[in-house]
Amino acid sequence: MAKKVLGFAQLATLIVVLSPSSIYANVGPGDNAAEFTTLCQLISLAEGAAQPPAATTAPSAEYDELMRLNMTLSDEAWHDMFIKSKADKTWHDAIPATAKDPGGWAEAWPTWRKAAEELTQEDKMANIKSLNVNAANPKQKAMIITEIRKMADAAQELMKKRHTLDKSIEKPPQEYAAALKTLAYGDKTKNRKTVTAADAFKGGSTSFSTDCGGAAASNKIKTVAATITCLCHKANTQNEDQVCGRTVKITTNTWTVNGAIGSAGVITEPLGFCSVEQGTDLTSSEITAILRQLKSLIKVTSNDGILGASDNGSCDADKTHGICIKLTNWAADGKVDITKLEWAKQAVELAKELSRREHAAASAAEIDSAIRNLHRQAFRTTLYTAHIQHNPHQTATPLDSTSKNDKGMEDKKKECEKHKNNKTSCTNAKCIWEGKDGKSDTEGECKPKDGGKGTAQTNAGTGDGTAGTGPNCASQTKKEDCEKENVGKTTPVCGWRIGKDNEPDKDKEMCRNGSFLVNKQFALSVVSAAFVALLF
């Protein structure tokens, strides 16, 4: 079979048919779908009355109760400063002339005055009375007062910061939903079924070229609804009824584009394809994202901007040219200014306000949590301080005890010195007689039993029988009397012997404490036992 060769004319015709300009000559179905889908997000939020989450409620009850608790721990003079007349039960609303303000009182006065007045209201004192601070011991109460004052002061500082945030979060959430309705439909009372051309376009509708074109600085597109109408309408001639999507087919309403919109259905029919977002929080980030996406869809030609599909750079509602919005000087130096659309400018401001609210609400929530935590801790201070013991009898320190012993020994020394010329009277006074040359009964020294050192020993002798609780060996001047001290005892307590190196008068034979060696041996046995325990 012979091959058929195309002629020049046939080949040229085929090239024309297959060229991009011939394939994409007309605006087709779905060419404005991306723009419509983006704009529909705002309609969906408006229809669902989206609004920001409500800010947390300030913990006024907890704060006021903490202030009352702090006030109850103040003295009576402080309470009385706020009372204008006890008889009339009136209070000073400002610092009285009789009070001297050291600084900072004026700002805190309303809080203090309120707390002072509420102390007289029984229904507000139940929790405070149940705390029963007065049952605490003095040390506990001092600690409780200190800690609660610190907590009250911290709470006041936090509440001051909280009040600075109020302006950013006091606007009711539903007002943000109303603002969204306004930028969507031009009237907060309208919706996608009731919006009209007079609502959607600035000054109402005139014609397609006027409504959807012109200078960026003076365009008539003041709502989201108007923007969708310009992109998705069905013109009376050369129309594309599915330009905003194959499922977004305009079948009922037609716009005679050389004149004004004759039926509200031209606007409402395409809006009906947008879904309704119920229970969605309105956030700054969402609005910003929608605007950013829409801005990215605007094409730049010279200094002009085009939103929608255009085949030849014009926008006249004719599918062979362009179904779009073209604004002159919308993109000076290639930079698109989306806020030239009135509704977009409102959306930018709405996003900024929402952002401020979101940050303030987050800070307020943290502060509210901190104040509630301070309140909770304040009402647990009696538990936190329960371990603090108070012993009113434990007033003397070891140093005090030593001082008392020293004074007692000084008095004893003076008493003994009165008997320095008589051995008998010296020993009768329970003092130690040291005769001259160790023999005289009329010349010598009469001393306290511990040698006047001012220290008391217990459970261990010193070798001379002067231990405060040991046997009175040193008072025995005769050997036989010394040995009598051992009668009835399993271990000798006294002995007539020469002194050891660490005993007084070590070269003198006298009655000495015999328990010295025993106690030292006992101590040694304890150390030895401990050492053996370490080995095993």
TrEMBL record:
It is found in: Cell membrane. Residues 15-372 form the Trypanosome variant surface glycoprotein B-type N-terminal domain. The keyword Signal applies. Residues 403-419, 437-452 have a biased composition (Basic and acidic residues). The keyword rRNA-binding does not apply. Residues 391-402 have a biased composition (Polar residues). Residues 389-419, 437-481 are annotated as: Disordered. Residues 416-535 form the Trypanosome variant surface glycoprotein C-terminal domain. Its main location: membrane. GO terms for biological process: antigenic variation. VSG forms a coat on the surface of the parasite. The trypanosome evades the immune response of the host by expressing a series of antigenically distinct VSGs from an estimated 1000 VSG genes. It comes from the Eukaryota. InterPro entries: Trypano_VSG_B_N_dom, Variant_surf_glycoprt_trypan_C. Keywords: Cell membrane, Glycoprotein, GPI-anchor, Lipoprotein, Membrane, Signal. This is Variant surface glycoprotein (VSG), putative. Residues 1-25 form the signal peptide. One of its GO terms (cellular component) is plasma membrane. It is a lipid-anchor; GPI-anchor.
